[in-house]
Batch of 2 targets.
Target 1
Amino acid sequence: MLHIVACIKQVPDTKIIKMNPKTNTMDRASAPAILNPYDAHAVEEAVRLKKRYGGTVSVLTMGPPPAVKAIKKCIEIGADEGYMISDRKFAGADTLATSYALTKALDKISKIQPVDLVLCGKMTIDGDTGQVGPGIARRLDIPPLTSVKKVEEVNKNDGFVIVHRKIEDGYEVIRSSLPCLMSVEKEINEVPYSPFPNMLRAARYEPHIWSVDDLEDVDVKQLGLKGSPTIVAKVWAPPKPEAGKMLEGTPNEKVEELLSIVLEKKELFQAKGVSQ
Amino acid sequence: MSERFDCIIVGAGPAGISCAYELAKGGAKVLLLERGEYPGSKNVMGGVLYRKMMEDVIPDFYKEAPLERPIVEQRFMMMDKESAVTFGYKGMEWGKEPYNNFTVLRAKFDQWFASKAVEQGALLVNETVVTECIVENEKVVGVRTDRPDGDVYADVVVLADGVNSLLAKSLGFHKEYKPDEVALATMEILKFDKKVIEDRFNLEPNQGCTIELFGDATKGILGTGFLYTNSNSLSIGVGTLLSGLIKHKIRPHELLDYVKNHPMIRPYLHGGEQQEYLAHLIPEGGYKSMGKVVGNGVIVVGDAAQLVNAIHREGSNLAMTSGRYAAETILKAMEIGDYSEATLDQYRVNLMASFVGQDMKKYKDSTHHFDKFPQYFDQYIPMMNRAASQMFTVDGTSKWDKQKKIWKDIGSPKEKIKIARDMYRAWKVMK
C-alpha cells in the first residue's frame, strides 16, 4: 500500500490579479485565493495512483488559516487526509525556508505512516520558481524527478518507479528508486469534476493543523523571513505589448510597406544587407 | 446507497440560509447546496437588508455581520429630464441600535450568514448544481446534482433556487414567467473614499442613505432606479419590467448608463472607480404570479416562490421569513414523521397569515396596474416637476396666477377627469 503525499499551496489567482502601480507589488485582495492549478494535477495523479495500486493520499500545505480551503479542495479531488503547518514563524518564507518547513512536516507525517512518494506541482503560479519540490527532495535525500508528464509504473515491492520526463524536444523515460519526489506537468492528467460524495466529505473535513511546536527538531533560524536568504531587489509588471499595426492598401502596396518595415528592423531578424 | 439527510435546501440565499439555520438549530440533519463558488457569489440585490426579519433568525446580528451602513435617510426622487421633485425622511433614531435597516453587499453578507448556518451544524456544499428533483410515488425524495454519483436523498427538499426556480417549474408548480412578471435589474458598484461619500450625502461616519429614483430614471418605463451608500462604495442601479425593456427596445445597460449620466445623479457619482457590474432578474408578478409552494416532500421559499414586494422594494426580508416558516413546519413534520403535502401545507398557511402573505395580497394588482397605465411614470411625474418649477420660480407672477397656470398645464377638463380617475385607481390598488 502506497502512501503518497502531495505538497500543495493556496495562491492568488494570477489570471485576474491586479498590480499596485505605486509599489509594484501584487494586490492580493484583488484576486480570490485558489489551489495552485499545477498542484491540482499533482493531487489528481496521487488519487489515480491510489486507484491503481491502493494506498493513502495525504496533502500537505504551509499557509495562513484560510488555506484550509485549498486542502478541502484536495479532499474534493479525492485526497484522504490533509495536513497544514500554520504559524507566524513560517511567514515570509522563500523557497529555501519553505522546503525546510515542509520537510520537517513530512518527517512528522512519515512517523504516522511512512511516505513512499512525494508529489508536487511543476511550480506555483504566484512564485513561478519550481524550486520547493527539488528543495524538499534534497533535504529528504531522495531523488527529485522534475517535469514528469506520465507515471508508467510504481513498484513498491521492488522499490522503483518508471516515469516520462518532459524535455525540450520530446520526453525521456527514466527509472528511479523509491521513495522519490516528482514534480508534475499539467499535461499529466485532467482534473475531473469531483464526485458528490467527495464534496460531502470535503465539506465536513477538518485538516490536521500543526504549529512550529508540533514539529520536531526544528531550527527556528531556518524558518520564515529569518531563514530566507532571497532578496527581492525589484518587482515590476511586464510591460503591456503595444498594439499591432495593420497595413492597408492594395496587396502590392502592403508588400512594399511590409518589406520596408522588415528592412528597417532587420536587426530583429538578424538579417544582413542594405535596402535598395 | 448514498447518504440521507432530513432536509436538503437548494440555494444559499437569504431564504435558503434562514431555513438551513433554523433547521440545523432545531437538530435536523441539513444539506445546503449552492451552485456558486460560495454563498453570495451569484446573488444580487440593490442592497437594503431589513433588521427585523434578520433578527428573527439571528438576534443582534448587526454586532458581527459584515454590514455596510445603517440607513438614517431614505429619499425619493421623482425625476424629469432635467429636474426632480425630492422628498424623504431622515431620523437619528435609525442611526442607533437596534437600527432600522442597512445597506449590504451580498457577496460578503451571504457568506457570513451561511457560515452561521454551518456553525449551527448545516452542511454546506458549493459549486454544485441541482439539475432535478428525484420524484418517487408522487413524492419528492431527493435531488440529482450535476456531479458524478450526484443523487442525494432527504425527507424534505426546500427549493430556494431563486427567481426562475427551474426546479419548481419542472415539478409543474409554476409556468415559465412572462416578461411582465419579472424585472431585470442592472447595477454597478463604484468605489469611493468614505469621506467623499459622507460629504456628498450629508452623512456622519457609519450612517447611510438610500435614494429611490422614479420617472425619468427609467425613461418612464415601469420600474425604479436606486442609489445606495455602502461603506466605501456606492451602488447605482435600475430595474424595470422585462416587458418594458422589450416594448421600448432598450438594452438594460443603456438604461443604467442613462441614469448614471442623468444631471440629477451624475454629481453623486463623479470620480467613482467601477468595481463590479451585476445584473439579475427580480420576480415582480406579485401574488397573482405565485405558483404552488408546497407539495409532497417539497417546499418553495423566497424568490423561487415569487415573494417580492416590488412597491416597497422588499424581497430579502420576505425570503428570510419564508425560510424560517418552512423550517418551523419541517421540524413539526419531523416530530410526526409525515412529510405529505397536507402536513407541509402548514407552511403556506403560516406564510399567508403573516405580513408576507398580507403584503403580497395588498399589492396584488399594483405591478399589473402600473404596467397597464404607463402615464403615472411618463406623464404625471413630468407634470409634477413642471408644477414645482412653476410654483418655485420667482418671476413677478402672483401665486394665484401660477396656480392657474399649473391647473391649465394639467390639460382639458376631460384630461383632468382622467387624471382624477387614475389617482383613484392608484389609491385603490395600493390601499
Note: Chain B touches chain A at residues 2-3, 31, 37, 123-125, 127-128, 145-152 (CB under 8 Å).
Target 2
Amino acid sequence: MILYLLRRLFLLAFVFIALSILAFSLGYLFPGNTLQNFTGMTDISAEMATQLTAEYRLDSGYIQQYIAYLQRIFSGDWGLSFASKQPLLQEIKILLPATLELAAYALLVSFFVGIPLGIIAAIKPEGIVSRIISALAIAGYSIPIFWWALLLIMLFSIGLGWLPTAGRISVLYEIPHVTGFMLADILLANSQHQTEALLNALRHTLLPTIVLATFPTTVMIRFTRDSMLDVWEQSYIKTARAKGLNRAQVLYRHALRNALLPVIRQIGLQFSTLITLAMITEVIFSWPGIGRWLIDSIYQRNYPAIQAGLLVISTLVISVNMLTEILHTLFNPLARKR
Amino acid sequence: MSLLMATVVSACQPQLPETVRSGLVYCSEGSPESFNPQLVTSGTTIDAISQQLYDRLLDIDPQSGELKPLLATHWQVNDSGTVYEFTLRPDVQFHQTEYFSPSRAFNSDDVVFTFNRIMDKSHPFHYQGGGNYPFFQSVDWANLVERVIAVNSNTVRFELSRPDSSFLSNLATDFAAILSAEYGASVLAQGQPGRIDSHPVGTGPFRFKEYQKDVLIRYYRHKTYWRELAKPEQLVFDIVPNNARRMAKLFTHECDVVAFPRVAELGLISQRPDVDVQESTSMNVGFWAFNTAKPPFDNAKVRLALAMAINREAILQAVYFGYATAANSVLPPTSWAYNAELPQLPFDQTQAKALLAEAGYANGFSMDIWAMPVQRLYNPNALKMAEMMQADLAQIGVRATIVSYEWNSFRRKLSNNEHDSVLIGWSADNADPDNFFRPLLSCSAAQTGTNRANWCDANFDRLISQALLTSDQKQRRSYYMAAQQYLAEQMPLLSIAHSQRFQALNSDISGIDINPYGGISLATAVKDVK
C-alpha cells in the first residue's frame, strides 16, 4: 500500500513538473516582452530591466531560468497582474476559495440528489419512475449550461423576484475576508446579524449551485444506475436473496458498497469538467471566483495572470484526480491487493 | 407551535441591521479613476465621489442655477472684480476614518492647501497623480488665480490677475472639492502621499470605507456632518458595466438606483410597477468635432458642407429614441445666454455638394469618424450614430471610416489630436455659459487637449474672454450671442443634440433628484422599508 502511495506521489510530482514547464514556456510563447510576461510589470526602466533580468536569470540558459522560476513559485513570488498591479498569488488566494466553495456545493448536491435517484432508477429498471429519471438525466446532461442558467435567472430572479442574480452576498453586508469561504467568513465575522447574512448568502448561492450541479448530478445518476444494475446481476446478490434477506437489506449490505466504488472514481474524472463549467457559471452569476478572473484575464491579454491561473487550476484538477484514485483504492480491497 | 410561528414570522420580516436596512445600493457603470475630484473629468467618477465625500465652498441651486453658500457662508468682491474674500463656516468636521483622525475642524488652511495643490508647482502634492488638473487647466486657473491667502482661520482671500465672471461658478463645480490639509501632512509624514487620492478624507455626508476595483465602493455615514446627516447609514456603489446586467439587478432589487438605463429600455422599465424612471433636461451637448488643424477640415466650407450633409432628425430618432432636443447651438436652450435667433442649419445635401466643389473637393475625400466606445448621456450610441453619418456622407461623395478604441486609449489619442473627426460631447459642471465655451473651444483648451476640434481662433477667444471681464449679465449675453453666431459660421463642431438624463430607481426610494449641473447626491435618499 505504501509502495502504491509512493508511486502515485511520484506520478503527481512528474505531472506537476510537466505542467510547470508548460507554464514557464508560456512566458516565451506569449506575445510581448518576456521580462514583462514574467514579472507582470509594464513599464520597466533600463536599469530595472538589467536588475530583473539578473534576478530572473533570463541571461542564463533555459534550465537555470526554469529552476529560478520554480524557486519563485515555491517562495510565493508569482509576479504581478497586468490589470491590477497586485501580486498574483494574493489575488488567487482571494479568488480560489470562492470557486472551491461553489464546486463543493455542486458536488455535495450531486451526491445527495444523484446517488439516491440512481438507486431508485435501478430498482425497477423498466418502471415508469426509472424512465422519468433517465429522461431527466439525459435532458440535464445535454442542456447547455449557460442557457439553463439564463432560464433560471429569467424565471426565479427577474420573473418571480425570489432570488438575486449576481454575487455571493448582498453588497450591503460587509464581511471581512478571512478564509475566502463565504459561509465560514460570515461565522467568523462575529456580527449580531449572522443569521440574516447567512440566509442572504444562501439565497445568492442557490441558483449558481443548481446550475453547476446539474451536469455532475446527471452523471451521478447514470453511473449509479448502471453500476447498480451491474451489481444486481452478480451471483452474490442472488445468494443473499436466496438466503432470505429482503430487498432493502441486500441493497444496503451488499449492493450499495460495491456499486458506489466506480462512482467515486467518476468524481475525479468529472472534476475537470466541473471546473470548466464553474468558469461559465461564475461569469453568468458574477461570482468572484478564479474562473471569471481567468476569463477576464484572457480578454485583457493579462499574460502573467493567464500563466498563474493555468498552473493553479491544472494542479488542482490533477491533485483531485489523484486523491479520488487513492480513495478508490482505499475502499476497494481488490485494487488494494494489486 | 408558537415558537415555530415566531420563526416563520421573523423569517418573513427579518430584523435587518441598520446598515443593511437603510443602506443604499447605487449601481454605476464603471470604476472611478481616482477619489480626488480635482484630477478627473469623467462623469462616472464625479457621480461616485464628489458630492458623497466632499463639500465645496459654494453650491449651485439645481432649480434656479444660482450660487448658494456651502462651506463659505458669505463672500465679498472688490470693485475691480479681482479680489474675492470668503468667510468660512465654523465647526465643519472632516471624516474620522480608520486611517485618519482629524484633530481640528475645517479652516482656511484647508482651502489654501486645496487650491495651492492645483496651481503651485512646489506644493508637495502638485505632481501627485501626474500633475494634471484637467478642469482647472481648461479654465486657465493657474494664470487666473495669483494667490490664495488665509487671512485668518475663517477667512480666505483669492487674488485674481483679471476679473472673471465665471470664477464663482467654477468654485461651485464638483471638481473644486475641499481637501484636508491636516490629512495631507499626515500621509506625507507616513511617506505615502498617494493615499491622499486613494483613501479620501473630506467633509461630505459620507466617509470612505473600502474600494475593490471593478467590484464596489463602500461608504458609511459621516456621523458629525455639519448639515443634516445622510439618510442612508451605508452607501454602496456596485460597479456593473454591463447594461443588461444592471437592468436585471434593478428588477431583482439588488440595485436601488441604476445610472444611465439604456434609452431603448425605458419603455420596458416603465411597465413595471416596482420601478420608477426619473427624467431631467440636463445641461449637455453631443457633438461631432472636426480636427480643424488637419486639412481639409481647416477649411470652414468643408466643415459646413459636412455638417449640412447629416440628417440630424434621423439621428435624434434612432440614437436618442426621441429623448433629446435637437441642438442648434453648443449651448442648451435652457441657458440664459442661448441665442434663439440663430438660423437653423439646413439638411441639404445638394448645397453641401456645391460647397465641397467650391472648396475644391468636387470628388469628395476619405476621412475617419472616431466613435467613442462608451455610452454617455450626451451620446448613448456613438457607433450607431457614426454608421448613420457614414451613409449620409457617402451621398456627397465623402468616404468615411469608423474608428474606435478602448476608452482610455481613445481619450489619449484624442488629446494627441490623431483624429479627423470625433463623436463625443460635454456635460456642464455649472450653470455658467462659459462652461460650454472655454473648456471646449478655447485656445487654452486646445493646448491641454480637451478641445476636440483642436480649434484656436483669436476672434472667438476674444469674444469669450471679453464676456468674462464683465459681470453685467446683459453685456455678457451679447458677447455669447456673437460667439454662437461665429460658431455657426465657422462650424468647428456640429452640435447634434441635448439629451435628457434618466435614472431608474426602485419605487420605494425617494429623495433623489437629478442635478442638471454635474454629479448626483445620494445623502438625501430615503428607503421606504415595507
Note: The CA atoms of residues 16 and 315 of chain A lie 7 Å apart.
